[in-house]
Amino acid sequence: MKICPALPPCTCHRHQTRSYVVCSSVRNVSTLSAAIPRAKSDNLPWIRIVDSNIPWLHSRAFGGLRAQSLQINASNLTNITSDAFIGLENLEALALQDNLLYSIPAASLRRLVDLKLLSFAGNRIGSVSNEDLISLINLRYLSLSENIIDQIETGSFPPSLLHLALAKNQLESLDNVVADLPLLEWLLLSNNKLHTLEMHQFKSLPSLRKLILTNNQLEMIEGAFDGLTKLRELMLNNNKIRSVEDVFHFMPDLRDIGLARNQITHLAYLGDLPMLNDIDLSENGMENVLVDAFEKTPGITRLNLSDNAFVQFPADALSPLASLVTLDLSRNKLESPIYITQLRLPTLKYLSLSGNKLISLPDNLFDSFPSLQELDVTFNLLTTFDRFTQFPLKILHLQGNPLRCDLNTMRALDEMEVQLTDRPLCTNAVLPISQEETN
């Protein structure tokens, strides 16, 4: 096996049959250049420079070094000459992250036609022109996240892209900036300033499988996702969406939707989503779920309705969910247990009713949920739990209730076969001060 060469001030490491070089705390480019001649004779495919001070990459900065991957991260890089990468024409991955670049160094990239991965994440780039990446015909993965980009010209991205990351920028509109990317599978647009998505916004992205739009200011999204027949994951958390009616229509492969922390107070018909598995609707101030909301989403196994404003258990709306395994209704305003038993969810295994105002649970709870294994009723108003001894549960979360400390209660605690996560405190039915303030 070939010995990894000594290249001070850098260190050489081996990974399986390959060697790679790591240079950290390099004070200037001259110090780095001294190590490069010693590396030319060795096949060192991966080079990583980090936490250094290299503000300028001059002409032929890496000489004839043979490398497939080059990273220069957190090294105060500001300027790159047009011929800085001469000799690195076979480079396949280039990462210049967390530096001080104000623009994409288009001239220096023109020689790197074999690049498959390129990252400028964490710089100060403000715009992207349609000339910046024009030569990168083989590019598959591009990250421009964590910049200050507020303008992108149409046609700026190579049609060969599979993954495009534009998260944490200043984009207010997409216009046609992500159009005509027939191979694109992942598009990350979280933490921008997007207000509206146009009808058929993503129609020219037929291969899209993952779309992340969290932490924007979206309000209008009707029809934006039409045509995305291969989309599997759609994240819209932390926006200002008020309605999802006429949004999803028919999306045959969609598996995961995130709609938490929006303003959806009433949930209407979601759409024809036969493969939907997981949906998060928490923290919306939701008060009502219409009867037909889940009419064509029979495959949902996880439903999060926590931190909303339900007073009644939305039994009629949940009845189509014959495959539901996990249901979270914690931190709502549920008072009466009667609505809980108005539906049958034969596959439900986990139910959370924590942080509501329930004073009792129905005796026939397991008629509705015969497969239930874990029940969370913490921080309600329950004063007794004698009937819990009859439930075929595996795990019970019971703490934070004003339980009566009578003989039956103490005996039930001692004899209970179900696993208690914490032994509840008896309060003689006096509500703890902290919970009085909550309720």
From TrEMBL:
Keywords on record: Leucine-rich repeat, Repeat, Signal
This protein's record includes keyword Signal: yes
InterPro entries documented for this protein: Dev_Immune_Receptor (IPR050328), Leu-rich_rpt (IPR001611), Leu-rich_rpt_typical-subtyp (IPR003591), LRR_dom_sf (IPR032675)
Pfam family, one: LRR_8
Official protein name in the record: LRRCT domain-containing protein
